[in-house]
Amino acid sequence: MPRYDTVCEECGRKDETFLKAYRERVPCPCGAQADVRLTCQVTRFTPFWHEHLGHTPVYIESREHLQREMQKRGLQLKHSTKVGKRFYDEKGKLRGVGM
User: Residue 54 belongs to what domain range?
Assistant: First the structure.
């Protein structure tokens, strides 16, 4: 579900809400109607230990670092909506699956 910002002109309240379908206005706790605006959804990268790049885990600090480590090992990233991320070598052999 998309996240939206709501702004009430009556009381000045700013809030975030999840809506299944877009609506121009939603009820505000003050009783008035609040305007709905689409929030820019930016995903932040969180550093993590990657266990599927080789025999030993690698600490990945950024998206660029992950790309460099994959290129170093001859891997490509392919997304699958059912499983998550799959890592293939140059010959197309599956090397690992991550989320």
Answer: 48-98
pLDDT tens readout for residues 54-75: 788 989 888 888 888 888 888 8
H helix or E strand, kind and range, residue 66? helix 63-72
Q: Which are the contacts of 80, defined by CB distance < 8 A and separation ≥ 6?
A: 86
Backbone angles phi, psi at 7, to 5 degrees: -135, 120
Give me the number of domains the chain comprises: 2
CB burial string 45-82: b at 16+ within 10 A, e below: eeeeebeebeeeebebeeeeebeebbeeeebeeeeeee
Q: Are 17 and 26 in contact (CB under 8 A)?
A: yes
Residues 97, 86: contact at Cβ < 8 Å?
yes
